[in-house]
Amino acid sequence: MRIDRLTRRFSGPGAVFLAALFVCGAPASGQDLTTASEPGSPSDVLAEPVRARLGGDALIVHRGSDRIRFWWVRSLPVMRSAAAPGWSDVEAGTLVGAMETAAPLPDIRGVPISPGLYTLRFAKQPQDGDHMGVSPYREFLVVAPAGEDRAADAIGFEAAVELGKKTQGRSHPAVLSVDPPSSEAAAGAIISTEERHTAVVVSIPATHEGRSTGALTFGLILVGRIEH
What we know:
11-stranded mixed sheet; two-stranded antiparallel sheet; 2 helices; 8% helix; 228 residues; mainly beta
């Protein structure tokens, strides 16, 4: 079983909104991340249409003593053909994967996500007064209770947000933030972002109109917090 402990800094855009106030620090003791791959089908608790979209192998992330399992879609549908597709090519509310956590997992705002099974759908942070300056990157994954999410296709921004609100029972959906990794970072690597968050690199094959077109690679932040 391969375990990666690579740490790098992002080389992505450094632009930050003037209103940004980041409250974030280095990972706390006992929260170092390690990764491994584990064969096996996604949980049969997932709705069958969702389960059918996911790959067989799980990405295992150990966050200190906590264990998180991720299953990613076999292919991510994008809206244009490109060698290196980005989130701008992904429809809002698209299913990206599923996550199972055995211990509470803080989302990017520091609010705990209870142990359980969840779907992960793409959405983009609104450009409004409530979200201005929260992060230099607007993309995130909405964390939704698996029992409430039964659709395989994209469901749009509003529907994804409504599902995400059910995870913590709050007016804001549960979300995990994503940042672009440096071009040298390989899938499964552990990296440190410019904001000193810690993320795992994920790379998902993309398809356009049923044809393969590169892969979408991103850093999924699992240690760190942003406030505004």
